[in-house]
Amino acid sequence: MPLVKGAVSLAAGATSDAILTGTTYEYIPQNSSLRVAAATDAAAAADGSSVVMNFTMNNTELTKNGAVSQKVDGEPFGANGSYILNDTTTPPDSIRNRPIITFTNNTANNPVLVEYAIFIR
Prior knowledge:
Largest sheet: 4 strands, antiparallel
Strand order of the largest sheet: 1-7-2-5
Number of strands: 7
Distance between the termini: 5 Å
Order of helices and strands: EEEEEEE
Helix content: under 10%
CATH topology: Jelly Rolls
CATH architecture: Sandwich
Structural class: mainly beta
Number of helices: 0
Number of domains: 1
CATH class: Mainly Beta
Radius of gyration: 14 Å
């Protein structure tokens, strides 16, 4: 049951590369569960703009512009808890599944740090 955990720094208006590209988990088998959590060091801007996550797999949009929460002091970050943005299972009849997860900084904050954790089981 692997855990892919890391952080990416994003300039204002920038979008990250796909997080799992180039890793052992770029493609995952059928009946695999993915739990995706993320947190940022930046609060949503006064105009409502925020850091967002997009998650697609096999031409299916699982999360579109999901607002990433600001990390809260005293609340540990990981693949459990209130930072979870998506929890999905790959189809049982699929052979190869490619999860594409990206983050975009829609704020004027420059840069912002996005921490992510992807639990695969």
